[in-house]
Amino acid sequence: MRNNNCLLVSLILPVSALLVGGCASEPAPKASAEKILSGEQMLRDSQGIAQLGSRWQEGKQMVERGQAMQREGQIKIDEGRNLIEEGQKIMRESEEGYKNLKQ
User: Fold this and answer.
1) Which residues form the signal peptide (predicted)?
2) What is the pLDDT of residues 44-57, one digit of tens each?
């Protein structure tokens, strides 16, 4: 019986060590871990990003052109107001001069 117990203990100890060692080791990689992107996927992604960048740049250029047009327009409006004021001043002076001649 003693031989059987020794044999049993000699088998249990290595199996126990394997079980404990297996629990302490790093976990197996998860099946749902992120997949590595294929070259085609990376190419599609980079083309999409490049397209977004081009579109953004196009929008920025439009904004800059619009702002320049507004500045030019404001300059024209200011010039127009100045012409109107100067013209009205000349008209008033002429009307006063005419009234003075009539008297």
Assistant:
1) 1-17
2) 899 999 999 999 99
